[in-house]
From TrEMBL:
It comes from Chloropsis hardwickii. The keyword Transmembrane helix does not apply. It holds the Pfam family Ig_3. It comes from the Eukaryota. The gene is Malt1. The keyword Kinase does not apply. One of its GO terms (molecular function) is cysteine-type endopeptidase activity. SMART domains: IG, IGc2. This is MALT1 protein. InterPro entries: Caspase-like_dom_sf (IPR029030), Caspase-related_regulators (IPR052039), Ig-like_dom (IPR007110), Ig-like_dom_sf (IPR036179), Ig-like_fold (IPR013783), Ig_sub (IPR003599), Ig_sub2 (IPR003598), Pept_C14_caspase (IPR011600). One of its GO terms (biological process) is proteolysis. Residues 207-251 form the Caspase family p20 domain. Keywords: Disulfide bond, Immunoglobulin domain. Residues 5-81, 105-185 form the Ig-like domain.
Amino acid sequence: FSTAIAITEQPVSVSVPVGYSFKLRCRAQGRTSLQYQWFCQHQSDCRLIPGATNQDLPIVAEQTQLYTCRVNDLHRNAVFSDWVKVEVHQCVARGLPPRLWQGEPVIVLNPSEQRVEVGQPLQLQCAAMGVPAPSYQWYRNGNLLEQQKRKKLWITHSKVSDSGTYLCCASNSRGEHWTNAVDVHVGEILPPAEHFQLFHLVFVLATGKIALLVGNNRYQHHPNLLAPVRDVFELSHLLEHLGFQVVSLLD
């Protein structure tokens, strides 16, 4: 009967830099003495790990692999632990954790700014190291996106309403870390020549010659942004050069 063995502590997935040393743990209880055997899977190849017959499996991270532990007793009952993923980051020079790293999330890939045409797919990506492996939650304009809980944010057919400022929170039992905030614009993408014509129409045909610029930098439920301050500064100089009287407001 398989119920004769109960796994009391499952191994957990981790996300670590190459060369990192750690142990996967599995604990079980049974009616007789128990034996352990670890297996690993890379791509489609699943194999027994020779000599890996202890409750703990020491690992020096080399490549991303899946692991499981088989526990059996003297009556030929056997159960397998959950499959767990050891994700190994090969190139994380700037995100490398400090020597006293305790496994809290460390961002190693930030999303990048996007300009997407309406109806086209929108994709943002981030990655973080952590022990245990972090979970992810995306936000737009400070609002939680209920369905976006993976490293990769994917919207199949983007809409104008998907425009905004995005960022992701990576968290585990040891803490949380936020990615950089990035702006996403969804709309009709004009060719460069049409961009210039539109710019000409807006500024040359403007009649009031008064421009009001508002840049919000601080938000109550959102990390501070840097771009608005810079944008207001640069736009005010441009507009003044074109003969506008500029009123700039920050926050």
